[in-house]
Structures are given as C-alpha cells and as structure tokens.
Amino acid sequence: MSLLSVEELSVTFTARGRKDATAVDGVSFAVDQGQVVGLVGESGCGKSVTSLALMGLLPRKGVRIGGRAEFDGQNLLTMSERKLRDMRGSQLAMIFQDPLSSLNPVVPIGIQVTEILERHRGLKGEKARKEAASLLDRVGIPDPARRLKEYPHQLSGGMRQRALIAMAVACAPRLLIADEPTTALDVTIQAQILELLKELVDQEGTALLMITHDLGVVAGLCDEVNVLYAGRAVESAGRRELFAHPTHPYAHGLLGSIPRLDAPRGEPLNPIRGSINDKIAWADGCAFAPRCDHYTMECLTGTPELTEPRTAGHQVRCVNPVLPTAEVPA
Amino acid sequence: MSLLELDDVKVHFPVKKGLFFDRTVGHVYAVDGVSLSIEAGQTYGLVGESGCGKTTLGRAVLRLNDITDGGVVFDGTDLAKLPSEEMRAFRRRLQMVFQDPLGSLNPRQNIESILSEGMAAHGIGKDQTERREKIKDILAKVGLPSNALSRYPHEFSGGQRQRIGIARALVLEPDVIICDEPVSALDVSVQAQVINLLEELQESLGLTYLVIAHDLAVVRHISDVIGVMYLGGLVEEAPSDALYAKPRHPYTKALMSAVPVPDPEVEDRRERILLHGDLPSPANPPAGCRFHTRCPWVQETKCATERPPLLDTGDGHKVACHFTAEIEAGTVKQTLATGIEAVTGTETVAAEAVEVSEGETETEVPAADAPEKAPVTVPAQADADAKEKAAAAEETGAKASDATDVEKETADATDEASGATEKAEGSPKA
Amino acid sequence: MTILTNKADKIDRLAELTQSSEAVTGTSLWREAFRRMRSSKMAIIGAVIIGAFVLVAIIGPWVAPHGPTAQNWRSEVFPNQGKFVGMRGENWFGLDHLGRDMFSRWLVGARQTLLVGVVSMLIGLIVGALVGVLSGAAATLGGKAGQRVDTVIMRFTDIMLSLPSLLLAVSIAAVLGQSLTTVMIAVGVVQIPIFARLLRGSMLVQGGADYVLAAKAVGIRRKRIVLTQILPNSLSPVIVQATLSLATAIIEAAALSYLGLGNPDPAIPEWGVMLSQAQRFFDNEPMMAAYPAVGIIITALGFTLLGEAMREALDPKLRG
User: Fold this and answer.
1) What strands lie across the sheet with A232-238, from one edge to the other?
2) What is d(CA C269, CA C248) in angstroms, rounded to the nearest whole number?
C-alpha cells in the first residue's frame, strides 16, 4: 500500500462564459514512504494543478475534480475542508516556486515558523522559539536565532527557500510536495537546495513529490518519473529506465532537445516541432500527435492506453512507441 | 582586429537619495572592469548567475546603459564616446534579442509595424511595399508564416514570439546580435528550436553573436568562446570545449558541478562543489578577489586584498585567480572545509557553513596574519533571484537598511516607478 | 515504414482535429477589449444609461411639450404660501416655483448638463494629457535635464492636487465671474493634475518595459518611441479616468451651480441650477429637487459603470 496513490485524477476549470478547460485529464501515480517521485512536463501539462488539487488548494467554485487520491487510506479529494486543513502542515506539506510570495512579507520568519509549531504541535513560547531556531539550523540557515527576527525581504532567494522548507518540515510531514522549488534560484543555490531535499528524504523517510520542468533535476533526484503532456501521463518509469530508454516520442524528443553540458560543442539538437498549443483533445486521440514524427491514423482514434512495450513497470501511452527497431530511421 | 572589443568596461549605477535634488551616496558596481574581444562570425557566450552583471554588460555594448568608463570598440569605432545620434545609426549594425519574448514586443503594434519601424528609422527600403517584401523574406527565414504580418504579439506562442524578436533584429541586417537569455523564458522543447534557428542564421548570414545566459549547458552548446562572470568581472574565459574539459577557476568549477545533467548515470557519479552562502551585493563587492568570500580554496594571503587579473594561462584559456596553478597541483588546501563533497555525504554542509554569516553589515578584511579561521564576514546579501538590473540593488537597499535608520529612508524615498535601471536605491557602506 | 501510409488522410484528419477558431487577421488589443466590453453586463447597463442620457440631451429641446422658460402657469403656483402643483396629465413632473413645466425644463436641462460634463472633462483631459505627456516623456527619455523638468512639473501638479478641488473651482469661478463657461473651466482645471499625474505615472511604467528598450535598441528616435510605443500603451487608465471623471464633472458642475456660481441666467435650465433653485422650496415641494437629482445620479452611475467595465476590459492581466 503506497502512502499516496492517485488514480485517474482529473481537474476541469468551468469558468462561467468560457469553454471548460481540462488541465489534468486522468493522471495516476503512487508515492511510497521515503520515495521521490517526479512529475515532469512543460508549462501547461497540468503538473502544478495536480499538486494544488492534492493539497486541496484549488478554489471550490468553478473547478470540477474527478478521480481518487488516497493518502494513507483516506481520499484527499473528498475530505472536509477542516480535516484537510489539519492534514496540511502535519501530514502533507508543500513548497512553492516563488519563496518570496509564499511568505508573509510583514511577519518575521520566526513568527511564521512558530505559528506552525503552535498550531500543529502545540508548542508554546520559548519552546516553540527554540524549536524554530533548530529547524532553521537544520535547513542550513546560519545564525538562526538572529534570522528568526528578520523579515522575508531581508533574506536572499536561497535563504527564503530554505526558510520555506523549514516551515514545510516543521511537523515532520509524511509527504512533501515541491512545486518547482528551485526554478527561481541560481544553479549554485539550486544545488544547495536539492542537496537539502535529498537529505530530508534520506534521513526522515519523507516521501517527496517533485514537480519540475527540469529533466536534469529529475535525473539526479527522483526514483520514479512520470512525464506529463497536456494533462496526462504519457510515460512512467524508474529514473534509470526512463533516461536510458525514453519510449514515448515526447519523452524521447524532450531528451533529444536539451543541450547537455557534457555533450561536445556542435552536437545538433533535435527539437520537437510546434508548441504545446498544437494539440488535439485526448478524446480524439493522442494529444501529442500533431507534433509527433511517429504518428499514424491509429493515433487519431481515441485516447491511447498505457502499455508496457519495453519492460514491466515502464508504462507508455503510445500506439507507436520509440522501440529499438523504430529508432533506426527508414 | 576583432569585430567587437570591450576594454575595461565599467558600468556603475549611482545610488541616490534626496527629496528634491538627488545626491549620489554610492554606487552599484554592476560591471566593474570587463575586457573581452569577439571575432567576426564567432559566438561569445557570457555566463553567470543573476546579479553578476552580464545583462548590464550586454546592454552597455548597445549603450542602452550609460558606460561609466572604458571602451567598446566596434569595427574600429569606440561606441562609448559616440554622440547619441551617431550611436543611434550604429545600432543598425548591433542588434539585440531579449529574454522576455512577450514583454519585448509592443502589445499594440502588429508584427508588420514592429518589424518595419526599425527599417524606417534607418532608411532601409524605399516605401512600405518594399519593406513588406523584405519582412516576408525574413519571416520565412525565421520560420514564421507570412500571414503573421497583420497579427499581434499576444496571438503567438512563446517560441514564435522569440522568432519575431529575432526577425526584428535581422531586418536591419546587423553584424552583431546580442542575445540576452534568448531561450530561458521558453519551454524546453521549444528552446532547441530557437537555438537551432540561431545557429542556422549564423551560418547563412555570417552573424556574430554575444550570447548572455545563466544556463551553462545552453552557452556551451552554442558558443565558441565562453566567459564566466562573477560579481561584475570575468573570472575565466576559454574556448567552449576547453572550459568544459578543464575549468580552472574555483567558481567555474562550482558552477559546472552544479548544473544538472539529464542523465542519472552522470548525476550519480558527479561530485558537487557546494558553495556556501549567496552572492554578495554588487553595491558593496568584497575587496580583493570578488569570489574570496565563497571560495573553497580561499587563502590567507592575497585573496582578500588583491584583485587577481585575468591572465592567459596558455591556449587562450584566461583565468583570474591567484592560485590556479597551486590548486591544480594540489599544493594549496581547501580552507572552507566542507566545500567539496560527494553527493551522498552532505550532512555537515549546513552546520559547518564556516563563518559565512550573511547580512553582516561590516566588511572585515582579514589581515594577512589573521588566524586560520578568521571570520570572513560577507556584506549584505544580494537577492539571488532578483533579475540583475537595479532591482537587485533595490533589494540590497532594503536589506542593508536595517543597519541604520537613516539609510532606511533611502529605500523609502523611491520615486514611484522611476526607471529602476537608472536609479538604484540602496545603501552603500562607509 | 508504416508511418508514412496514407499521408493525405493523416493530414486531413489532423487538420480537422486541430482546427482552431483563430482568425488569420490579427485582433488588436483595442478590438479585443471592445469584444470583452460587449459581453460585460456592467458595460451594457452603463452604455444604455449613457445612450438614453445623450438621446435626451439631443432631442430634449424638440420633444419638450412646453417652453422651458415660459411661465405658463404662473397663477397656479404660490411658492410663498407653499402651494405647488405636483404631477398631473398636463405637466408630468409638475410645476416649479415660477409656474414653468418641470418636465420640459428637465429635458432641456439634460443638454446643458451633458455639455458642462463633456467640455470640462475635455479641458481636464486635453491639458492634463499634454502636461502628462511632457512630463512622462521628459522623465523616461529626457536624461538628467528631463528629470529636472519632470520634477518641476510634478511638484506643480502636486500643489494643485493638494488644494481641495471644490475650493479651487470656487476660486476660479470667483476670478472669472459667474457664467457657464466659468463652471466648465473651473471643473476642468481641477481635473488637470489628475490626468497629468495618471498619464505620467502610466508612461513611467511603460517606459521601463522591455519593448521600449527594444525600440531603443533598434534605433528608433526618441520622439517616435514616445509616440508609437509608450503613449499608446499608457492610454488605457486615462480613458477609464476620462469616463469616470465625466460623472464627477457633472456632479461638481451641479455643486458649483448649486452654490450659485453657475449660469447667471437662472431661466436657462441645467440640472445643477434646477437643484439649487429647488433648495429653497425643499420643505414644500421635495419633488422639485428629486427630478434633477435623480437625473444627475443616474447619469453619473452610467458613466461610472462604463468606466469600471472599461477598466476591466482594458486590464492586460485579464487578457486571454
């Protein structure tokens, strides 16, 4: 039994006066204790909406959520607002992309951290302050006692993200959802933060759901990877398997289009043509077909099923997957 | 003779305060003495983290920022000293592609108008009909349909908008294009399209590029020569492959080890050099080597007192470090002890962030005979994710303002939206 | 390869599935804003009210059943004794204190009110926009000298803004004497610093945008950058403000008339004047005040609704 198992999660925005927009269209995955699972995709693939749906942070109005998301046997999607609020912070925690806007600008860091400790762990006064300082210390913020008195704008971007992580892990949550936690940071700072996350998972056994567009980050961090496209997972596999044998044409194309630091100069990139706007509805066929070099008429007759064309556990949603024989161009 | 030569270029933004007439109370040293040269047909990649001054430098070449000191010699003419009208004429030959494809296109102009305006300003094409023909030609070259002419920027996807930005530069038939983070705002799958397009155009039109980016992988892919910037100065410059094969400056090493590679095999083997702390404020850069406050190999002698020059170490590989040879020979030891670690053993990183206490408001330069672990206090932190410009400087102002109340007023006195680039509010130190 | 089979079919099917509603000719932001306005209830209600008001203002004098100044029923009204004539078949809105038909006066007064509103708004808009453009252009592209110019202009507008608007209007009216023109100028002058500040602020924001930098980099002359790049993008808040200030202009003009600074000829009807005349008889005949007051309120509401709807439609954040 996984800690979190998401089945056929779908999120549709039903704003008045507009066409319904399906952001997530049947995503399934599972996260185990101490595991790092990645949701990878480009903008508009539904990865952030998935995380917000799991945290119950989507507005109740104008949003239709379907499917199941079982956390420790309870369905997060149907849970009452009150129960969910208790879960957030103590069992589930989230780290956002922009640390500055996720922190209250007019309240010192210390109070923001102790507030969580008071609410979820019942710590008071000096005890809470001590614990807060040790949390900041834990995430690598030097001189934590002084930092507690400072306001978010007085910290650098990296420090803010650390403070946010400190708040997220304050109650030793069992699942941490990180939505592009390093996108706003410089690479050297990103390296620091990734190390910190890795350490948390290794030492505390926290499960981590990592949401990112950066395949490089995924390669170094995640155990299981789900590649999302237009609101659906198109490929799911273990990290090594996925990067060694990307089988969905999208995943394959994505890896071929990233300039790699270790590739010699002049090695050509093979971009995927078009943009995310060139898609068709999943109901009509494979959303990626308009950008795909491999598509056939079958791709345009309904949603392709998840299959395991290569090895067990390596799921691919494609009628014409990139298999060793197909890799040889005609 | 190189096509474009920068000679000790400095761009310092004055930090002002005052109610009616502003008084300069200090400077943000955004670019502080950069010399480099770019050969015709070459791509020079400038890489560095936010706040290092790379964008400011790129804009300074086009005189979009005032150059405080130094020369920008383009094809024999020093642009830095040109009167503004003559400079305007020169802009035809030096063009720029911007980071934000949507923000850099006027939302109320259609594509034809956007593209023809520059042509009209430089007297290219007799009339609109002739210009339109040329524009159609360029649109085809950058891979846009010709019916794009009558459409508006918001009707295109991110990648297409960047193609429009490139077309805007190309219609003027420039010699040099400065690409400021040309792909960082684009989706991964689209980035490669634009990179390939830039490469194709270079080949067919013989363009010279100055590519400014924070993504080392992109820069390495596209550049012939790479310059690494840190806090307003170049710390290393080398041919692309040589830099990757053998980075020599400690900062370059750290930067390179931090770039994630989409390959688990590589990631698992990699040893990361984790730098401690953040970038110091460009309003108050550390004395001596700019990097000494974060350098894992910082030595007691020289590093904090003497700024190392960028010296050629052979084969065009230039490094600005006092101890390049010693570090490579292993004769100097790491001093910030936890600097290098294998990915797996990082428990101590945080705890041992040795003596780097950010936000300290005084810079103490340790004397040469200071004890081994003399506190190296770093000046107030620059906001790492602030997008260069003076926004970074403004942050700094806010930050340092906790030092004295007087200085706090500076930050408050910010006149509404008054072009943040021109006027960096901050509080430098005495 | 199976991939290339029946290529034509594939293309057709794809085209059919990805068919987008996107037109080939572009839609400018102005047109898009207009499209959004059309689907906004607020805009429609506002536009209907304004349309009705303008219609009344135009055709009012022709359809008015009686002369607005004719004291046809002088003998039926005894204001000193508190005897008035209310609504009746012949005079829908009743009679005023001089025995004139209120309905006719109301219809004719609409035109004067609209005139005052529009003219004073235009005075404020035109002069304010000129000052604002000058200041904004000087600040964004004028270098050091330009910033001095901008500072001086802005300190001056600050002084104007710091004076209470009605007081300023009263002083102007006192200097220029009592006339309808005075009211229009007074109300207009009060709006000048508002428009100037607004346009300058908006231009400063736009002046820092990347596309202005791009235009500079392309080598476009500064004057042209201001005219083709900065200005068109800075206008939306000014347009919204113009609509909103029509409402305040009408109210302020009414206030000035009410204070007796308006049209010296009390015979010519104007809603503000009518309101001020009704004041004396409010105890006996409150309806005399109600008609012009309701007219002013509803008209002001109409302009405000339209202005707010415009603000929403022109907001770039809501685009898409």
Assistant:
1) A92-95, A175-179, A207-212, A36-40, A224-229, A232-238, A315-316
2) 20
Q: What is the pTM of this model?
A: 0.81
What residues does each domain of chain A span?
A: 101-172
Q: What is d(CA A114, CA A121) in angstroms, rounded to the nearest whole number?
A: 10
Coil, strand or helix at A24: strand
Distance between CA atoms of residues B325 and B298, nearest Å: 14
Which residues of C are less than 8 Å from A292 in CB distance? none
- Distance from the B372 Cα atom to the nearest Cα atom in chain C, whole angstroms: 48
**With contact defined as beta carbons under 8 Å apart, do B97 and B59 qualify?**
no
Domain ranges, ordered by start, for chain B: 4-242
Q: Which residues from C are below 8 Å from A281, CB to CB?
A: 17
ipTM of model: 0.87
Query: Sheet containing A63-71: which strands, arranged edge to edge?
Result: A21-31, A4-13, A63-71, A74-75
What's the pLDDT tens digit per position in B358-414? 333 333 333 333 333 333 333 333 333 333 443 434 444 433 333 333 333 333 333
Using the beta-carbon criterion (under 8 Å), do B172 and C140 form an inter-chain contact? no
CATH superfamily of B4-242: P-loop containing nucleotide triphosphate hydrolases (3.40.50.300)
Residue C224 · residue B121 · CB < 8 Å: yes
CA distances from B213 to B5, B40, B223 (A): 19, 20, 11
Residue of A284, A288, A260 whose CA lies nearest to A272: A288
A296 φ, ψ (degrees, to nearest 5): -125, 180
Q: Are B107 and C316 in contact (CB under 8 A)?
A: yes
Q: Are A278 and C18 in contact (CB under 8 A)?
A: yes
Q: Count the neighbouring beta carbons within 10 Å of the beta carbon of residue B25.
A: 17
